[in-house]
Write a structure and sequence with these properties.
338 residues; mainly alpha; Serine Threonine Protein Phosphatase 5, Tetratricopeptide repeat; two-stranded antiparallel ribbon; 2% strand; Ankyrin_rpt; repeat; Ankyrin_rpt-contain_sf; ANK repeat
């Protein structure tokens, strides 16, 4: 490139700057950069880690490879607000276009990274992919050997998270790869002893160390709700619930929910008519009793503003509420209501 001349006739002695295709490559090729007043900056492992994680977050595979060539480790974790995410966690959670994300994930899988590694909430990359509802990523991880039965700190499986967020395609990818359909996040001692379902008893159990709890400062995904079908009943995820029942064989009579309740108990309490009808049409029992002897119909009545009800007033409210009408159409007589 021709150098411009100065007014005094002398040519410039300082060449014009040239730029390489990759800014990251340019910076990493000069580890002793001058900044400010002759201050030297050394590319420490901390700096390399930031560069690596930024490259993964943008799904720039060439930059990821360059960082690794310069000494970055794929085992390094995000120690900041990322809650201890590994490289594969960050690749799954990045907001890049899907084709670029899958390129990075495939490369990381080929590099033999640990697929069932956990972050500070004990979530695996598969938990993250299920929560985001990305079936392509879920399938990639499962085919590479990720465990669909893994639990996080709150005993939730990836299927719980897909169901809670209404991600049908992700839920189908999980169930078609042997994800446990009837796994409950309620711990065995709670199912055996209904008293542990009471908040005060839960707090006491946590203090005594008999409960698993998340690391201090972490956020919980959802409240304890039982199986994935219980989660659908609570969150009104009709399409996922239909898939779990009709295609994956979920147990509509499961009493693994809070207070040993069935999915119908949960749906009635939340006032989700369509879920109630789906469960009833697939064999749910309207007179099933939970740990406190309550039926789904009784749970449904709880959502109504009872002020003190006469028989006529109660009947009027039942017919005014679509959810209870759905239940009443089955066997409401068990509660003495005609």
């Amino acid at each position: 490139m021709e150098q411009p001349s100065r007014e005094d006739g002398h040519e410039r002695t300082k060449p014009l700057p040239t730029y390489k295709s990759s800014q990251l490559e340019s910076e990493l090729s000069d580890p002793w950069k001058k900044a400010g007043k002759n201050r030297m900056i050394v590319y420490t492992p901390e700096v390399l880690r930031s560069a690596l994680h930024n490259a993964i977050g943008k799904a720039e595979l060439d930059d990821v490879k360059l960082c690794v060539d310069r000494g970055a480790s794929l085992e390094w974790r995000d120690e900041g607000d990322g809650c201890g995410m590994s490289s594969i966690h960050l690749a799954v959670c990045c907001a890049a276009p899907m084709h670029k994300k899958l390129e990075v994930i495939d490369w990381l899988i080929n590099e033999k990274v640990e697929l069932d590694c956990i972050d500070y909430m004990e979530s695996t990359p598969l938990h993250c992919a299920a929560a985001l509802g990305e079936p392509e990523v879920v399938t990639r991880l499962l085919k590479a050997g990720a465990n669909p039965r893994s639990w996080d700190a709150e005993s939730l499986t990836p299927l719980h998270l897909a169901a809670n967020n209404g991600h049908l395609a992700a839920a189908r990818a999980l169930t078609s790869n042997w994800a446990p359909v009837d796994e409950s996040d309620i711990e065995p001692e709670e199912l055996e002893d209904p008293k542990l379902c009471h908040p005060k008893e839960k707090d006491k159990a946590r203090r005594e160390g008999s409960k698993r709890v998340a690391t201090s400062g972490t956020n919980l995904y959802i409240a304890r709700r039982g199986t994935a079908l219980h989660v659908c009943a609570a969150a009104d995820r009709l399409h996922v619930a239909r898939h779990l029942i009709e295609e994956a064989g979920a147990d509509v009579l499961s009493s693994a929910g809070p207070q040993q309740g069935t999915p119908l108990h949960i749906a009635a309490r939340c006032g989700h008519k369509d879920i109630c009808l789906l469960l009833l049409h697939n064999g749910a029992e309207v007179d099933a009793r939970d740990a406190y002897g309550e039926t789904p119909l009784m749970r449904g009545v709880e959502v109504l503003p009872l002020t003190p009800p006469s028989a006529a007033r109660l009947s009027e409210m039942l017919h005014a509420d679509d959810t209870l009408v759905a239940l009443e159409g089955e066997r409401a007589a068990v509660c003495g209501i005609k």
